[in-house]
Amino acid sequence: MQKRVVFNNRLLPYLLLAPQILVTLVFFFWPAGQAIYQSAFIPDPFGLKTQFVGLDNFRFLFSDPYYLASFKTTVIFSSLVTLVSMGAALWLAVMADRVIKGSSAYKSLLVWPYAVAPAVAGVLWLFMFNPNVGLVAWYLGVLGYDWNHVLNDNEAMGLVVAASAWRQISYNFLFFLAGLQAIPKSVIEAAAIDGATFARRFWTIVFPLLSPTTFFLLVVNIVYAFFETFGVIHTITLGGPQQATTILVYKVFSDGFVGQDLGSSAAQSVVLLFVVGVLTVVQFRYVERKVHY
Amino acid sequence: MSGMVEKRGLGTWLTHIGLILGIAIICFPIYMAFVASTVTQSEIAQPPMPLLPGPHFIDNYTAALTQGINAPVMTMLVNSMVMALGITIGKISISLISAYAIVYFKFPFRMAFFWMIFLTLMLPVEVRIVPTYEVVAGFGMLNSYSGLILPLIASATATFLFRQFFLTVPDELVEAARVDGAGPVRFFIDILLPMSRTNIAALFVILFIYGWNQYLWPLLITTEPEMNTIVMGIKQMFPSGDDIANWPVIMATTLMAMLPPVAVVVLMQRLFVKGLVESEK
Q1: Which residues of chain A carry a pLDDT beneath 50?
Q2: Structural domain includes residue A18
Q3: How far apart are CA A142 and CA B48, in angstroms?
Q4: What is the mean pLDDT of residues B172-178?
């Protein structure tokens, strides 16, 4: 935790820590404290004074069908994003691990989407599927499918999932590939000599040995889908149609800024704080421990 | 799984085809954006749009850079660059010195500070949107670079990374520095900083991408188009009514918005992967 040999200086360490601690207090702890404080009050209609309501904001929140629907939407959205991006990444990583020549070229061609902002990914996918001018939407029309994510809930969900997962594939790919390359070749060769087919070797040997990587990525992808996909939702659907893609983070924003419902927004922030807390604890307690070997 | 396993020709070919197909699907959205940025508005307004690039590359990019829609894209690019560099340099600087204090000094409340920094991991801006906005508004920092940068420069991840690295630096170096009469400031500048070069560079790549790609925060605090960053400014370029969006200019802007971070990843791939792996430890 600390050096055996340390400097003896009374003031210096505090000066060194001051900038970080100051930023932390002013922009992290104070606002978080405010959110907790505000979650126990409701402002009057004129915004002149607030009234203490205890836990009423939370009671109201958890009996609000829109909020519960947003919870459900978030769970569906996160599961789909995680499944799609990890599935595609694993498929690509297994193939990249198989090729002898050109493996690093493929890697270079697959890492860059990580650098694309979620909001930019949203605009790219919105363009392809725009009901009026989008190329993919147009060809779907030719095939007899009338695409309109502005009106159709499932299509809207599909589109935000695709855009969010697309950007995350490269991250998952890098970690899966590293995980695959760390598996001793001798184990796989032994199984091949025993006559196990590729599919059998994959499911009985490779996949179980990859489980630490898979579990780590599972947590990272859930955190990503929960908290970093705001840009995708905001650029493509604005949470619509009829809240079909309103994930929790989007709802805090739309209730707090667009709807100006501060008590509810603060209560939602507190719920999210709890969610992040749980995810962080899971990440630090369990991810480091190897699941398999 | 190369080596002696599976060396038959057909399997290898299928693998290559599969990979190329996957890459093609992943690159397709970018290709379509590029095509859109080289044709005219009317070509896109009458679907299907062309599948091959047109001759209007220079027109569209010039129009975007010099006029844009609400503000010239050039202005937004400058704003993004200032924000991204400010966040990156800010995070690295304050994390370096905090990690130095925590590892190399003994003082009351050392662990309390460490845990305070750790807790910021649990407080992403997304969950404290309204109150953080109120704090920044209270300081009069809306529509300013300091408002864009300062609230984002605390970094538990960077502090942990440097702390981890400092702990691996041999104690003999401090002893030697002391014998030579060097104080803590000299030791930090002359010995520790140069040794941290690779870690700083790897972190720089990751944090630059993080800073450049910020969306929600600039969306909240920049209400004047002249202060918009490019990543959040794209959405503002869409018309609010039934008008057809100016897709060629919007797509040119979209490509320019992704160019700097993508270039950083492609050109500094090894540092990028190192940064990614280290910052997730």
Answers
A1: 289-293
A2: no
A3: 10
A4: 86
Of B201, B229, B1, B218, which is closest to residue A181 (Cα–Cα)? B1
What ipTM goes with this model?
0.90
Report how many domains make up chain A. 1
**Does the pLDDT value for residue B1 go beyond 50?**
no
Q: How many angstroms away from the CA of A183 is the closest CA of chain B?
A: 9
Q: Which residue of A has its CA nearest to B159?
A: A20
Which residue among B95, B178, B266 sits closest to A108, beta carbon to beta carbon?
B266
One-letter amino acid identity for B133?
Y
Q: Which residues does chain B have within 8 Å of residue A31's beta carbon, measured at their own beta carbons?
A: 128, 131-132, 134-135
Residues 25-54 of B with CB under 8 A from A: 26-30, 32-33, 36, 44-45, 47-49, 51
Q: What is the spatial distance between Cα A41 and Cα A57, in angstroms, rounded to a whole number?
A: 8
Tokens (6 digits) for B184: 């803590």
Distance CA A178, CA A175 (A): 5
CA dist B75 and A76 (Å) reads: 39
Residues of A in contact with B155 (CB under 8 A): 20
CATH number for the domain spanning A107: value is 1.10.3720.10
Tokens linked to A144: 């007899």
* B117–chain A Cβ distance below 8 A for any pair: yes
Would an 8 Å CB–CB cutoff place A263 in contact with chain B? no
Would you say residue A197 lies in a domain?
yes
Name the amino acid, one letter, at B93. Answer: S
Interface with B, mutate which of A15, A24, A142, A278 (most B CBs under 10 A) = A24
**For residue A31, is it within any domain?**
no
Please write the tens of the pLDDT for every residue from A107-132.
888 888 999 999 999 999 999 999 88
Cα–Cα dist B27/B47, whole Å? 21
Q: What is the dihedral of CA B222, B225, B226, B230, to 10 degrees?
A: 80
Please report, as a single letter, which amino acid is at residue B77: L
Burial B39-53 (b: 16+ CB within 10 A, else e): bebebbeebbbeeee
- Which residues of chain A have a CB within 8 Å of the CB of B237? none
Provide CATH code, domain B73-279. Answer: 1.10.3720.10
What is the span of the domain harbouring residue A68?
57-286
- What is the bridge-based pairing of β-strands A50-52 and A41-43? antiparallel
Token duo for residue A57: 């904001």
Residue A216, chain B, CB below 8 Å: the answer is: yes
Q: Is residue A52 one of the residues assigned to a domain?
A: no
Contacts of A180 in chain B (CB under 8 A): 1
> Do residues A249 and A118 lie in contact, with contact meaning Cβ atoms separated by under 8 Å?
no
Nearest CA in chain A to B139: A26
CB pairs under 8 A between A and B: 307
* Angstrom distances, CA of residue A155 to CA of A239, B79, B197: 13, 35, 48
